[in-house]
Amino acid sequence: MRTVSAPILAALAALTLALVSASAETAPPPPLTVFAAASLSDAVAELAARYERDTKRSVRLSFASTSTLARQIENGAGADVFLSADEEWMAYLDERRLIAAGTWIRPIGNRLVMVAPTDRARAVELSKGFDLLALLGDGRLSTGDPVHVPAGRYAQQALEYFSVWDIAEPRLTRAENVRTALALVERGEAPLGIVYATDARASKSVRVVAEFPAASHEAIRYSFAVVSGHDRGGARELLAQFTSPDALEVFGKYGFVIP
Amino acid sequence: MLEFDCSLRQGHFSLEVAFSAPSPGVTALFGRSGAGKSTVVSLLSGLLAAARGRIVLEGTVLFDSAAGVNVPAEHRAVGCVFQDARLFPHLDVRHNLEYGLRRVRGRQAPIRFDAVVDLLGLAALLARRIRELSGGERQRVALGRALLAQPRLLLLDEPLASLDAERRDEVLPYLERLREQLGIPIVYVSHDFDEVLRLAEHLVLLDRGRIVASGPLREMCLSEELHAIVGASVIGSVLEGIADRIDAAERLATIRCDELSLRVALAQIEPGSRVRLYVPADDVLIALEPPRHVSARNILSVEITRLEILNGSVLVHLAVAGTTLLARITHSAVRELDLKAGKRCFALVKAVAAQGRRFDRRAVGP
Amino acid sequence: MFTPDEWQALRISLEVAARSVALSLPFAIAVAWLLARRPFFGRTLLDAAFHLPLVLPPVVVGYFLLLIFGSRGPIGAWLSEHFGLRLVFTTSGAALATAVMSFPLVVRAIRLSMENIDPGLEAAARTLGARGWDRFFSITLPLSLPGILAGGIVAFSASLGEFGAVITFVSNIPGETRTLSLALYTAIQTPDGDVAAVRIAALSVSLGLAGLLLSEWLARFARRRLGP
I need a surface site. Which of A109, B64, B311, C163 has the fewest CB within 10 A? Predict the structure, then answer.
């Protein structure tokens, strides 16, 4: 092995040092991570894109059921901001001191609807004890799992309100999140589903066959907050952006309820 | 009667063989390794198809390339005993034996289970698993299995080649019994001349995919072609005769082969039984005058018919009483005794040198 | 000790695994036999195709199953129309998902066994009068038993652990498709579900250990009966 001459070594060292310091100077701030409920997929994706354009700061998004995300945060997942589809899960994290003080806000709401595949959609009359079984035939009712998915919980409340919960319970699909519940209806695997109005709007393959009155379920209010320990580095700013009047306009465009 | 006439080419090897084998009878296919013996067996069994040729067994056409006939192996009723036995490891001995018997379908099944078990001494082995059997036992089971499939032709492809000397000696008597009792033709492939001597009536000599010579064993033993293939020390003559007189005290038997009588060290034989004798050429001495006070029990007046030059020695063909003996001696002896065709002299054959075995042919069964 | 839901998940796991084995073995035997014979045109391609589930993410496999066997899929619609058979949301569908995922490994195990059979045995069987299918059932199949057994064990154990393909194809229906894996997943999402999660995990481990012991015993039994 030939020995590399000293001058060349020195030059290489200088070059390396220069490159390292250069990158250190122009290093961009680390990306922000947003955990958002599945039903917020489209709206938040748009808001995040805007944010990245405006601030030149990259945003990482993770969409899943509120329940999944909350449990991940509980187990130490590195989220900066959490956008939950209900208050319960936010309260769950709050009890465990996992959200930054004073950052919990409830900026938007949603409505609950019943949907069917477009080629089989017939309006459904919602009344106490309505014949859900006849409507389902031998199929299932597609909802999120009422045990942990907010959309599922709201659905359970609505079904209880109309006294058809006992009939419906064994026929639920118990999907992992509301978007999966929607997909099952879109593909015709389930003849009916209960999802948010915003989800129905986002899909061309399903049609709304009934709207659940607000009285039939607990108010659907999204909860947004910064995760505790992630309060520096721009999380609050992002949250502020996502709840600004411009942002609310975007939410409104997708069909969310702006109080 | 089996008629075989096939040719094929496999890579560098080309085979062109035509012969017939009588029925009943044992026809040995003899030759060096690579001569094509196993190929002939594969063609006979139907596991391989020749490029061109014809195989006819007792009038039934098994293969005819010109007519487009190729009876598949499973329909030929040609039994095979392979060198590696090929017993089914997941079946016990009984079920191995019964395998072919169960698949005989419409045909007659004159070869019976108990008879075969008896013939081959398998009674004690019936419940055993294959892996518990010795090499010799496996070959006997393989033989029994092939027989019970009611074959019209039996092929034995070097069945004793993978056995040690002791096991071979254990199995050979069963093969001899088989020869005596089986009414169908047997084709026996071997590169071991001793097995051929003990079992074959006819010999087909193969070398490099061609038939070099064929005929009854007695004649073949005298042929130059055979002498070129077997080792010089194995050369000898085969005689067949009847055991005339047994001298139990001396342990000597007198075998009469037509007009020739030979005294042979062979005590365990019944008077009147047919015997095959093998006289190695190395054990025959030639004298110009009958010697006196000599140990050899047979001193025969013979006439030299031919001097065959081998590699480093001379094979002298000696005619005596309608048959031929062979003597292998040195060139120097030939010169000194001035031996030449037509000369009369004496052949000395030791009683202990001649190897004799009972060689009966009793076709039992159809 | 365990809740009725947890026992139910165990029962579903065992049922799905058993059905998965019953479903995949016959096809795997056929495919293994095809691939173990002399080479034929397209064999390599076929071999690669059957290995796909091994290299694809389980969710992708589940998605393809949905496309083909879902209510609107070509085969799914046919099954539903002619046999009234639905696969989505059902135990049968879960079994299909796990069978597909484990198929390549099952085929391998059986094929290995088949390739180890002395071809001379089949030749001997032919000379004894055994025709094609006869040879397959009397020689090939019995001698492949160690491989088939190994394949069955693989199919069973892989089925117990399968998650992505199941949840994507047949969803997470308690009493139908909620196996132990899926039940564990649900427990993880559920508020204060950690205790249940640990219990289900413990149950899975015990099941796994029992399975391993059973497979070891079966393997020994096979060796004894079919050893050389």
Answer: B311
